Amino acid sequence: MKMLMFDTEYFWFETFSKNLDHVDDLETEERIEDTAVAFIHAEVEDEPRKDKVVKKAVSNLKWYLNKVNKNRIVLHSFAHLSSSKSSPEFAMEVLSEIKTKLENKEVEVHTTAFGYFSEFSIHVRGESLAKVFKEI
């Protein structure tokens, strides 16, 4: 798994086009203020070690939220951080589990529409920790 995390003033997204046939039709637009954002890429090698990957992802995301003094995060499936890609079903399941575990830790979690290309705008802060890459 690869994660690219940002400390942002805001993250805005709108569904643009559906890219997976088996997901529900959806049109959504949302702007989340003063949030962390995580672009998450699930890889094929993550599939046999799902529980470990989810646990480490949650730990890294919680660490990042503490570092940037946030309790709000946007999870965005982003299949462009590696040439190795898990199945869409696995990626969707992992994101759902990460979201649930973060919510159980009292984090406010937003997600972008899975199975859609989205238009987005992001204002990333300038500090060094405003942009962090993690490989699990």
Question: How are the elements arranged and paired?
Answer:
Blueprint: E1 2-18, E2 29-41, H1 50-67, E3 72-77, H2 88-104, E4 108-111, E5 116-124, E6 131-135
Parallel strand pairs: 2-3, 3-4
Antiparallel strand pairs: 1-2, 1-5, 1-6
Pfam family, one: tRNA-Thr_ED
GO molecular function: ATP binding; threonine-tRNA ligase activity; zinc ion binding
Domain Threonyl-tRNA synthetase editing: 1-136
Describe the structure using short key phrases:
threonine-tRNA ligase activity; 2 helices; D-tyrosyl-trna(Tyr) Deacylase, Chain: A; 40% strand; alpha/beta; 136 residues
Kindly summarize this structure in a few lines.
This is Threonyl-tRNA synthetase editing domain-containing protein. The protein has 136 residues and is α/β, with parallel strands linked by helices.
Task: Describe the protein's architecture and organization.
The chain has 2 helices and 6 strands, in the order ββαβαβββ. By secondary structure, it is an alpha/beta fold. It has a single domain, classed as D-tyrosyl-trna(Tyr) Deacylase, Chain: A (3-Layer(bba) Sandwich), CATH 3.50.80. Strands 1, 2, 3, 4, 5 and 6 form a 6-stranded mixed sheet that branches. Helix 1 packs across helix 2 (88-104). The chain starts with a strand and ends with a strand. This is Threonyl-tRNA synthetase editing domain-containing protein. One of its GO terms (molecular function) is zinc ion binding.
